[in-house]
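Ops channel
N.P.: pipeline sanity check, posting one input/output pair.
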């Protein structure tokens, strides 16, 4: 039987028993947990862009943003302990092609919380403190995102062992991080000194937009080819199909936000061109995003019917959909069409529902001790019965060693 075996470059011994005993839960805390921070922060960020205005909604966004900040602080502390006490396991994560791409989530978590600080944080912190906090988080997130966008593909080429037909939407994660910087950086442009500083910031965001877009365009055909030639993803990985919406919605958000920040930062002619580009790029890409949303939803419904259960991959239903909300809201601002506004509102309702489900299931999983348990030990098999060894499942991530589903 053909199997989709997750390649792995992990060759070192298992961590000693004493290391596991110090903090067994943290030993298996992977970088994928930052997706919960991203998925929470985007609820506040996306809500702040909607055409709906009321004090009650604004207050709710502030609460959600504050929650994302608390989650980010807790995870940064826990991951620091993880690196200090379980450095061997952390290195395994970097050398595991199923886990390493999730380092892009750290960058996007920093950026998303920073964006929320600028969008709704002034209600609590005041404008000056909110701008300062966002600047720190944007700089940190951008640095981590650029490093991940270069380092993870390098590891995939030089250190990981990637088998044919194993392309995954997870590969997009480190590549989309610079796009998040490009989408949120324009918010800081008005707070920079006029002239060279503002223009440099604007054009740097355009450079990151191009960097992320072109890299994503190289990976998306691999993901689609994998689906066409090998059939649907394993059940636990089906939610990751929604990750493709991330670069689509985030790039639409970026061009609209860059067009908003262009007047005064660049010449009037360039500002008009950027405004036109926001429309000419954003509308077609939004159309493709809706097409992919339909395809991904159909495949996820198929996975539900086949018995898909909760895993941390369910957070893929949140942040990517949120970027489509901000992208549609940006198009509504620039076109004045109510249709885009209602599209943003409808997608926001989906986002909130997905966030509530993922958040509730994650909290229950933590309370019951199911999400940070060590992966199951693989029984030894005779060499002739196992020509391709199946490695241990990555902590906190879905295993890629499930058999491919039969295709009719």
């Amino acid at each position: 039987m053909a199997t989709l075996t997750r390649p792995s470059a992990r060759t070192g011994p298992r961590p000693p028993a004493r290391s596991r005993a110090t903090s067994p839960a943290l030993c298996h805390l992977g970088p994928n947990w930052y997706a919960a921070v991203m998925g929470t922060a985007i609820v506040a960020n996306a809500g702040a862009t909607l055409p709906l205005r009321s004090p009650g909604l604004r207050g709710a966004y502030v609460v959600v943003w504050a929650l994302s900040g608390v989650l980010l602080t807790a995870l940064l502390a826990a991951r620091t302990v993880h690196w200090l006490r379980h450095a061997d396991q952390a290195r395994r994560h970097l050398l595991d092609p199923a886990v390493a791409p999730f380092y892009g989530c750290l960058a996007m978590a920093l950026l998303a919380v920073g964006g929320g600080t600028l969008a709704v944080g002034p209600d609590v912190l005041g404008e000056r403190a909110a701008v300062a906090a966002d600047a720190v988080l944007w700089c940190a997130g951008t640095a981590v995102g650029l490093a991940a966008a270069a380092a993870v593909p390098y590891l995939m080429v030089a250190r990981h062992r990637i088998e044919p037909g194993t392309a995954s939407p997870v590969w997009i994660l480190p590549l989309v991080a610079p796009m998040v910087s490009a989408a949120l950086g324009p918010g800081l442009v008005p707070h920079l000194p006029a002239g060279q500083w503002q223009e440099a910031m604007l054009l740097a965001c355009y450079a990151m937009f191009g960097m992320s877009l072109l890299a994503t365009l190289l990976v998306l055909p691999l993901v689609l080819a994998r689906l066409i030639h090998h059939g649907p993803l394993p059940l636990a990985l089906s939610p990751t199909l929604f990750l493709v919406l991330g670069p689509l919605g985030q790039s639409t958000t970026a061009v609209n936000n860059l067009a908003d920040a262009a007047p005064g930062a660049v010449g009037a002619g360039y500002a008009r061109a950027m405004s036109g580009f926001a429309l000419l790029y954003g509308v077609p890409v939004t159309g493709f995003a809706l097409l992919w949303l339909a395809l991904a939803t159909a495949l996820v419904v198929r996975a539900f019917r086949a018995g898909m259960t909760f895993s941390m991959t369910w957070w893929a239903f949140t942040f990517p959909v949120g970027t489509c909300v901000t992208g549609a809201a940006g198009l509504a601002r620039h076109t004045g069409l109510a249709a885009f506004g209602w599209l943003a509102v409808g997608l926001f309702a989906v986002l909130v529902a997905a966030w509530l489900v993922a958040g509730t299931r994650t909290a229950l999983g933590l309370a019951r001790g199911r999400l940070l348990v060590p992966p199951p030990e693989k029984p030894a098999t005779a060499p002739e019965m196992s020509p391709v060894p199946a490695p241990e499942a990555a902590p906190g991530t879905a295993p890629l060693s499930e058999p491919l589903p039969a295709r009719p």
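N.P.: looks fine end to end. Confidence is low (pLDDT under 50) at residues 1-22, 378-408.
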